[in-house]
Structures are given as C-alpha cells and as structure tokens.
Amino acid sequence: MLDKSHKPTWTSFEQATKADWDAVMEYEEAYNAALPDRILDAIRSLDEDWTPYPINRYEHSLQAATRAYEDGADEELVVAALIHDTGDILSPYNHGELSAAMMKPYVSEKTHWILKHHCVFQGYYYNHHLGGDRNARDRYRDSPYWEDCRYFCHEYDQKAFDPEYPTKPLEFFEPMLRRVLNKGDGHMELNEKAEG
User: Fold this and answer.
1) CATH for 97
2) Is 49 exposed, middle or buried (0-12, 13-18, 19+ CB in 10 A)?
3) Rounded distance, CA 119 to CA 108, Å?
4) Domain assignment of residue 194, yes or no
5) Is the pTM of this model over 0.85?
6) CA distance 74 to 11
7) Is the Cβ–Cβ distance between 56 and 160 less than 8 Å?
8) Residue numbers of the domain that contains 97
9) Rounded to an integer, what distance in angstroms lies between the CA atom of residue 55 and that of residue 99?
10) Between 170-181 and 35-44, two packed helices, what is the crossing angle to 10 degrees?
11) Which pLDDT tens digit goes with each residue over 34-80?
C-alpha cells in the first residue's frame, strides 16, 4: 500500500534519492496495474451516438476482435483487433501509431507493426475515392509483416461494419486484454542498454 503521508521534497530528478525512486516505482506499479481498466474505458468511449458508419467505432472494435477470434487468430492479435482504433480518441490522423505505441511493451514486433501500419493498409479500400493512392501500402512491401497487415485489414478491420454480425461483448475480450497486458518487460527505458 502506498504511503500517502510522505510528500517528496525533491524538485528535479537529479535531486531524488534511491528511496525516492523506490517510492515512485511503488506508485507506478499500482498505477500501471490499472492500465487494463483505463484501456477498457477508452474502448467504451468509442460508443458514440452519432456516426457516419453503419455501426460506431465501439461496435466496430468488438466486431473486428470477434472476427479475429472466430478466425482462430492468437490472443495477442485478437486484442490488437479490439484496440486498433482506440488511438482515434486522441489522435485521429495517426491513430494507428498511437495504438501501436500504447501496446508496444506487451506485444510482438509483428503485432506492433500491424497496429502501426493498419491505417495505411486500410486506405486500399477508400483512398481512391478521396483522391489518394489506394496502393500506398505497397511502399512497405519489403516488410516481413506486409501480408500479415494486409490480412488483418482485409479479414478483420475493413469488413467489421456489419450491424447483423454476431459480435461478442466487451466482457468476452476483457480477460484476453488483461492477459496480454500482464506480459511485457515493464519500463522500456530500463531495458535499454548503453552503446559502446
């Protein structure tokens, strides 16, 4: 349990002691343990009343995850399908990069790459209607994950707008999300090694 009676007196990182950093890490451990709840809240926030799509982004996220699950995708990819558009909340023009960054400590390089690039790959289905290049995804053809991302978009993302599709509820995916977020190496900066 966190000791809330002790207020730190340092005003810059260089003044903080080992004991101070131990207290910070204790706080962060408790805060980070609640990450699944914050991500679930972010997913729920996509449940807007008005949308120009046949279903809203919340239903789309659940449907994409359901399609991945029904297709036999591994749990990490099902969770990626569930959260792939949560970056829309804060960064609609590069939401894939935000969703990927959020999940980087917990998923494989392949899943991270798919999340980061899914927006460009989705453009294949509509860019040409908007004056863009539908083949923009081809600039990534040399990636070992190109086909994985194409498949993710084709099978899970672009077709997940069907109001009649038997979509599973968020509660079904919650244990999967919690398991995926329970993996990882923690603070990425602590795992960085000095060069030389």
Assistant:
1) 1.10.3210.10
2) exposed
3) 19
4) no
5) yes
6) 46
7) no
8) 19-182
9) 21
10) 140
11) 999 999 999 999 999 888 999 999 999 999 999 999 999 999 999 99
